[in-house]
């Protein structure tokens, strides 16, 4: 599975962005799809994930971010509202057999999100 993220950019605090992750090579309908983020000098952290069963979110994005998928377009999205400066990071898309196996799954190259105060 090849994953390509897009939609990152610079936004003011309180603004919104929608990230997209276009998959190719395999259909995402059989995968758990997730979003992670990383700040330089820190470990990559979980943001949100979606499988056919449910969606999970990190506590720090609950109520602000929404993960969704369009299986027909083979694309997963991350709608980010009420962005905060601490949301600034490189955001990565991942695909895996389950929500517990992203570390051994497929990853995109990332898209930069910068939130100004």
Main traits of this protein?
117 residues, mainly beta, seven-stranded mixed sheet, four-stranded antiparallel sheet, 11 strands, 0% helix, 52% strand, globular
Structural commentary:
There is one protein chain. The protein is mainly beta. It is globular. Strands 2, 4, 5, 6, 9, 10 and 11 form a 7-stranded mixed beta sheet that branches. The protein has strands at 2-6, 9-12, 17-24, 32-38, 45-50, 55-57, 65-70, 75-80, 89-96, 106-107, 111-116. Helix content is 0%, strand content 52%. It contains no helices and 11 strands.
Q: What is the topology?
A:
Elements (H helix, E strand, L loop, with lengths): L1 E5 L2 E4 L4 E8 L7 E7 L6 E6 L4 E3 L7 E6 L4 E6 L8 E8 L9 E2 L3 E6 L1
Parallel strand pairs: 2-11
Antiparallel strand pairs: 1-3, 3-8, 4-5, 4-9, 5-6, 7-8, 9-10, 9-11
How many angstroms does the end-to-end distance come to? 36 Å
- The total beta strand count reads 11
Radius of gyration: 13 Å
Q: What is the count of helical runs?
A: 0
Mean pLDDT across residues? 96
The 3D shape can be described as globular
Flag low-confidence runs.
Answer: none
Q: Characterize the main sheet.
A: 7 strands, mixed
Name the helicity range: under 10%
Order of helices and strands: EEEEEEEEEEE
Taken as a percent bin, the fraction of beta residues is over 45%
């Amino acid at each position: 599975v090849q994953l390509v993220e897009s939609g990152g950019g610079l936004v003011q605090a309180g603004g919104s962005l929608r990230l997209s992750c276009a998959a190719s090579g395999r259909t995402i309908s059989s995968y758990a799809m997730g979003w992670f983020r990383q700040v330089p000098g820190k470990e990559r952290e979980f943001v949100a994930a979606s499988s056919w069963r449910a969606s999970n979110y990190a506590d720090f994005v609950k109520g602000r971010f929404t993960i969704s998928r369009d299986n027909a377009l083979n694309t997963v999205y991350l709608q980010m509202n009420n962005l905060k400066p601490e949301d600034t990071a490189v955001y990565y898309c991942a695909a895996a057999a389950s929500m517990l196996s992203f570390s051994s799954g497929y990853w995109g190259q990332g898209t930069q999100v910068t939130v100004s105060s």
